[in-house]
Hints:
Layout: E1 6-12, H1 15-20, H2 24-36, E2 44-47, H3 54-67, E3 71-76, H4 86-91, E4 96-102, H5 114-119, H6 126-135, E5 143-147, H7 151-170, E6 175-180, H8 193-200, E7 203-207, H9 209-217, H10 221-234, E8 236-237, E9 246-247, H11 251-270, E10 275-279, H12 287-293, H13 296-304, E11 309-310, H14 315-326, E12 332-340, E13 345-349, E14 364-368, E15 378-382, E16 388-397, E17 403-412, E18 425-428, H15 434-443, E19 449-454, H16 458-468, E20 471-474
Parallel strand pairs: 1-2, 1-3, 3-4, 4-5, 6-7, 6-10, 8-14, 10-11, 17-20
Antiparallel strand pairs: 9-14, 12-13, 12-19, 13-18, 14-15, 16-17, 16-19, 17-18
Helix pairs in contact: 7-14, 7-16, 9-11, 10-11, 11-13
Amino acid sequence: MIRKPVIAIVPLGHWIYFQQFPGLFEELNKKSQEFAGYFEDSSEIIITEYVDTVDKAFRVVQDLKAKDVDGIFMLLTTYLPSALAAPFARYLEAPQILVGIQPLNHLDYGKCTTFMQLVNDDVCAMPEIAGVYPRLGRKMPPCLVAAAGQKERIQQKVRAYQRAIAAKAAFKYAQIGYLGHTYEGMYDMHTDPTAFFGTFGAHVKMLEMCELAKWAEQVTPAMIEEKIQRIQETFSIQDPSVDPLTDYVQKEDLEWSARMACALDRLVQENNLTALAYYYKGEDNNLYERMGAALIIGNTLLTSSGIPLAGEADLKTAAAMLIMNRIGGGGSFAELHPFDVEGNCVLVGHDGPHNIAISQGKPVLRKLKKYHGKSGSGIGVEFSLKAGEITMLSINVQQNGRFKLIAAAGISQAGAIPQTGNTNTRVIVPGMEITDFLAKWCEAGPTHHLALGVGNHLEEIRCFARLMDLDLEIVGN
Length: 477
């Protein structure tokens, strides 16, 4: 389920200065509240006591361990010996960012006093402290350096790391459901649950269709009616299009999709799932086949509420969708569709699951007599992403067994899409021929699925890759 990450701001200084310079402690201690103002309210932000001795460092470290924080911003307020930061590096596993925000853009050198220099010595200890981390067997921490007047730069950097920490925290103590089996023959979909746990820290929970069937049986008529009302308020139900596979949405279609949406909600709730990958083929229109075919509306509503679902049992793309959601992009299940040379764009979409929170306008429901490449029939969801900047994120496994992120930024271009009951977004990549982009994207080695989100979130993805020690390739100019 969704948990709010906890982020700590740890102000650090040097006790010996405060005996020598009255008022210096008060001046430096103000920096914590000023820095806290750059964060979004999506995380719980705590400010620890001011750390200016090793004794205090140990005390704060123990307190942060008890609070199980998800990320730490080490605020260097003046010079301090690296022994004060070493306990954080040694005892805390949470990612740490070194921060040096100098109050002044430049010193008035003709009038500068030692007091003024100490107030502006925010980066003095940064190289010393940064060098301690690898000596203690830890990764080199990211360093954020700015003058206080560079407010836009500071906010951009802080929020990029805040969102990356939120994405990392989404996997912490999480259970990612795996329902059914991978689509036959999609070799890029297969994922080792142990390797997944080792990289992301989330347990892969194997689920069975019989459990989903049990919850479906327990859905009441009142629950179905309530869900149908929500569906009718959320979607625009359309008549058949030019595609002969489309049909009229009947009352029984809505009732069956609503029942399965309720059952899917219960499956997520009972198993405490943060995300879910699912697929079931079925045979001869049996119960499980009909259940699997009716999940598109339910998985769309869940995905749009922050519980991403990935079709064809693509566990890696469920992870990509979770990352995209927590960094602020929403995240919808997608793959490459036909490209358009005249429009210099490519259609990117899928038959589900979707994220209607990032839809351009009211999403459409269409009845499909049959699914292309899948068993059964049912209701499909159709829309484009909001016009404007978008981000694509895919995850695959390399020859060495390491997970790799592949990302790109582009533009969602308003325009016509096929009326086939699938999502389709017209994506252009500024400054590139679409065929060149597609070749480079494929050469980067993604899965054929990806998480499609609104906004340019490459900076957050870079931060996430660094915090998670993951390989990353950005595709584009």
